[in-house]
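F.,

This is the one I mentioned.
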């Protein structure tokens, strides 16, 4: 890999760590497209490995704010959604599925802008987990459903809960990749080399995460979900 490409990947990891450490989502949306263009052989293992320490740090930093019941219900829905995602992959072309998910995400953002706060009950949590399992298994994008579900929650609750949910999902995904021999050492080594860039990005959140709450955080969540929908369409 050339030096410019390596530098571009490192910068994307730094910015992705800064973004997700501040608002709770965004790392994969920033890093995965860069890797897909510069070094597709590093996907998905490198991204998943890098997200382990990042989400562990965020969940620990605001551990008292983790919605434990919400994490359990989302994880339950996510496990079921993973199997549904595999079934959908077998039935539909990936391109058609991404277009459908892109439009659905954009429409959900529009509905969220017109709707007030809602009760974060079990149906919403299970639905968010189910859709996350489907979209992440089928397209690799899993953040928008959970981001939209927790958009009205305080910043610490949103960041810590999403980090805990992501962490559990990443452990499961990496275990499955390793068990099926789809986690080459190249991806592990690349993640190790990129850890310093990730550390710098996460360190930068010290001045940002405490200031993102209320309306600014909700706007960031909706912007992230909208961008995810556009990425699916493109």
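My design for it:
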């Amino acid at each position: 890999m050339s030096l410019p490409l390596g530098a571009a990947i490192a910068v994307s990891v730094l910015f992705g760590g800064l973004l997700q450490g501040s608002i709770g989502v965004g790392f994969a949306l920033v890093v995965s497209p860069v890797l897909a263009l510069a070094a597709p052989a590093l996907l998905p293992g490198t991204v998943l490995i890098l997200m382990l320490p990042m989400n562990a740090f965020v969940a620990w930093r605001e551990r008292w704010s983790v919605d434990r019941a919400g994490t359990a219900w989302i994880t339950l829905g996510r496990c079921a959604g993973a199997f549904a995602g595999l079934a959908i992959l077998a039935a539909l072309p990936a391109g058609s599925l991404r277009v459908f998910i892109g439009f659905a995400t954009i429409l959900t953002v529009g509905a969220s802008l017109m709707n007030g706060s809602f009760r974060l009950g079990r149906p919403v949590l299970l639905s968010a987990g189910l859709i996350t399992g489907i979209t992440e298994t089928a397209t690799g994008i899993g953040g928008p459903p959970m981001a939209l579900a927790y958009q009205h929650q305080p910043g610490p609750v949103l960041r810590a809960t999403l980090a805990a949910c992501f962490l559990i999902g990443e452990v499961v995904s990496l275990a499955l990749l390793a068990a099926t021999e789809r986690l080459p050492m190249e991806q592990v080594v690349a993640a190790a080399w990129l850890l310093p860039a990730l550390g710098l990005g996460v360190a930068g959140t010290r001045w940002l995460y405490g200031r993102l709450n209320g309306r600014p955080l909700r706007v960031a969540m909706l912007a992230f979900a909208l961008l995810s929908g556009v990425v699916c369409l493109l």
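The chain is about 80% helix and 0% strand.

Talk soon.
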